[in-house]
Amino acid sequence: MEEEFSFLPSDGDDRDMASRFRKFLPVIIDVETGGFNKNTDALLEVAAVLVHMDNRGLLVRGDTVAFHIDPFEGANIEQSALDFTGIDLDCEARDAVEEDIALKEIFRAVRDEVKHQGCNRAVLVGHNAHFDLGFLHAASERNKIKRNPFHPFSCFDTATLSGLAFGQTVLAKACESAGIEFSNKSAHSAAYDAEKTADLFCLIINKWQQLGGWPPQA
Hints:
Elements: H1 17-20, E1 24-33, E2 43-53, E3 59-68, H2 79-85, H3 99-116, E4 121-126, H4 129-142, E5 150-157, H5 158-166, H6 171-178, H7 190-210
Parallel strand pairs: 1-4, 4-5
Antiparallel strand pairs: 1-2, 2-3
C-alpha cells in the first residue's frame, strides 16, 4: 500500500538533501553475519540502498548495491547464524566476493552519491543501526580501507523511529503497521532487508513532513 503525501513548497531550500540532514547523506545499510561479534565473526552479505529527494521534497528509494561475501580468513561462523539467515556458504550460485572488493564498490557508489547530492558525508541508516555500523567499520579497518564515507559513530535507527511512529521495533511488524509489504520468506537477505528498511525510513520521514514537522516553523 502506498501513501499519498501533500507538499506545500516554502522557499525551496528544503527540497535538497544537503539541507534536510545537515549535509549528511542517509544511506541504508544491512549486513548478514556469522554471529554478533564484529571483530571475530564473518561478514557474509552487505547491501547499500541510496535514497533521493523528488521535486516535492519527498524521499524515495534509489539504487541497491549488494554483495555476497566470502568469510575472511579465520572468521568465526556460528551455525545458529546460518540457520537464522538461511545462508548456504556452499551454494554455487552464491557468487561471493572478498570483503575488500565488496566494501570498495559500495564505498565508491556512496562517495559518488555524496558528491552528487552536495553533501559532506554519509550517515548509515539501519534497523538496529549500531550493529550494521559496527560490522561495516570493523570490516573496513580489517581491510585497511582508508576512504570510508560513513560517519564513524552517528547513525539513523529505523527501530527507534518505528517505535515512535508505529509502536513497533521489529522490522516485519513495523512494515506491516506502515502498510509496506513484507515477506518473511525473503527476509534476512541483506538486499531485501535494506530495501524494506529504506522504504520504512522514507515513509517515516515523509510522514513527518506531511504532518507539518518539516521544515521547522519559525
